[in-house]
């Protein structure tokens, strides 16, 4: 099912953005509704507009629920898990989910390394935005998706500087780059959705113990 907007989805997205910018726990530094629409909705929606997402997906390091809640609204026939290690964020996201009456999404308080222990190769795809360097993100995500699944990384204009390190990590994790979707939120805001495909099993030593992916990234320092 491709991403498209109808009245019901628009209403839910507008409501969610209002919840987010008025969050009790400051889940976003953005408080202006127009800026929130651009950076928390358009940034997610534009590269997904022509994609067909079906299955069981995870948003790793969801923070305030972006991109996971936006994706859950856009793709109601898919299942979404929103993962974050900070309990107060997860509790507020659960409130958002309830108020929006979303039946296809759940929030889980856990680190990605811990979640992979019982959920290895469970997901069709993993999304990450504003979490860490690309090579670190790939180590968190690769064990969680099944062969043929994809990892979707939202990256800024600095993607080219990350590319070599990410490619090295991908080669160790059973991934290959599928495509890069370039887009603009505004004329001066260039963005990339970098998509990796899982082509073979991720070695059992990944993910490494909590914190190691950041201390000793696969792509080097």
Describe the structure.
The protein has helices spanning 7-21, 33-48, 68-74, 87-100, 112-118, 134-141, 159-173, 212-215; strands at residues 56-60, 79-84, 105-109, 123-129, 145-155, 175-186, 189-198. The mean pLDDT is 94. 39% of the residues lie in helices and 25% in strands. It has a single domain (7-215), classed as Vaccinia Virus protein VP39 (Rossmann fold). A seven-stranded mixed sheet has the order 3-2-1-4-5-7-6, sandwiched between helices.
Q: What is the gyration radius calculated from CA atoms?
A: 16 Å
CATH architecture: 3-Layer(aba) Sandwich
Uncertain spans, ≥5 residues at pLDDT below 50?
Answer: none
> For the residues shown, what is the average pLDDT?
94
Globular, elongated, flat, extended or rod-shaped: what is the shape? globular
In total, the number of strands is 7
Measured by DSSP, the beta-strand proportion falls in 25-35%
Order of helices and strands: HHEHEHEHEHEHEEH
Question: Quick one: biggest sheet?
Answer: 7 strands, mixed
Structural class: alpha/beta
CATH hierarchy class name: Alpha Beta
In the CATH scheme, what's the topology name?
Rossmann fold
Cα distance spanning the termini: 40 Å
Number of H- or I-type helical stretches: 8
Count of structural domains? 1
Strand order in the sheet with the most strands: 3-2-1-4-5-7-6
**Would you identify the CATH H-level superfamily?**
Vaccinia Virus protein VP39
Please estimate the helix content: 25-40%
